[in-house]
Design brief:
- The chain has about 180 residues and is α/β, with parallel strands linked by helices.
- It has one domain (about 5-70, about 95-180): 3-Layer(aba) Sandwich (Rossmann fold), CATH 3.40.50.2020.
- Helix content is about 20%, strand content about 35%.
- The chain is built from 3 helices and 10 strands, in the order E-E-H-E-H-E-E-E-H-E-E-E-E.
- The chain has helices at about 20-35, 50-60, 110-120; strands at about 5, 10-15, 40-45, 65-75, 85-90, 100-105, 125-135, 145-155, 160, 175-180.
- The strands form 2 sheets. The protein has a 6-stranded mixed β-sheet with strand order 5-4-3-6-7-8, sandwiched between helices. The protein has a 4-stranded antiparallel β-sheet with strand order 1-2-10-9.
- Strand 1 (about 5) and strand 2 form a beta hairpin.
- Helix 1 crosses helix 2 (about 50-60).
- The longest helix is centred in the first third of the chain and has 18 residues, at about 20-35.
- The chain is globular, with a radius of gyration of 16 Å.
- Bound molecules: guanosine-5'-monophosphate.
- Guanosine-5'-monophosphate binds near residues 108, 158 and 164.
- Its cofactor is Mg(2+).
Length: about 180
């Protein structure tokens, strides 16, 4: 395994290996399997960053469930969140009385999630919880009570890999890397 890699014009060092991600993902899936056993949850993945986590998480679920994806346009390639949110695409329109699990790659300031939750609640779902692979507690602007499942809490630093990009590069990396230099 390479401990240091280059993505675009920056160097990154290993942060969380794929093996650790898989172990933690199995633990979260076990929790979800127990807690949503008879609820036929609808998992809604937030693209693009969630794609690997969503796939690995759902492969470990053993309960009847449905799967959907949505997209929020934001975060234009740089290293810091602009907080500028645009639009939601593809949010399912039949969420009333459903048990929802929103699957995210990372919660940073929480602004994206706050925006998504506002839209989701308009449809009066039965329950809403969020499952995020990564969470930066130091960056969150206001607490999000729905954030029930967190893979790893990480410091307030930029990470790439396992779905997360740096200027659209690096999503295919199997480990998660942190920015260095
Ligand atoms: P928030 O709205 O919580 O500040 O940011 C959420 C979005 O910003 C994430 O879905 C992700 O696209 C992007 N983001 C936040 N922190 C990072 C990071 O460390 N690395 C990458 N690649 N994207 C991040």
């Amino acid at each position: 395994m390479m401990n240091t890699i280059e993505v675009g014009d920056r160097k990154f060092g290993i942060s969380i290996t794929n093996e650790r991600i898989n172990e933690r993902t199995k633990e979260i899936a076990a929790q979800i399997n127990a807690e949503y056993k008879d609820k036929r949850p609808l998992f809604i993945g937030v693209l693009n960053g969630c794609f690997l986590f969503m796939a690995d998480l759902l492969k470990e679920t053993v309960i009847p469930c449905e799967v959907a994806f949505m997209k929020v346009s934001s975060y234009k390639g740089g290293l810091t969140s602009t907080g500028e949110l645009k639009e939601i695409f593809g949010l399912p329109e039949n969420l009333q009385d459903r048990h929802l699990v929103i699957v995210e790659d990372i919660v940073d300031t929480g602004l994206t999630l706050k925006y998504i939750l506002e839209k989701v609640y308009l449809q009066q779902p039965a329950s809403v919880r969020v499952c995020s692979l990564l969470f930066k507690p130091e960056a969150i602007l206001s607490p999000i009570k729905e954030l029930e499942y967190v893979g790893f809490e990480i410091p307030n630093e930029f990470v790439v890999g396992y779905g997360l990009d740096y200027d659209e590069l690096g999503r295919n990396l199997k480990h998660i890397y942190r920015t260095i230099s």
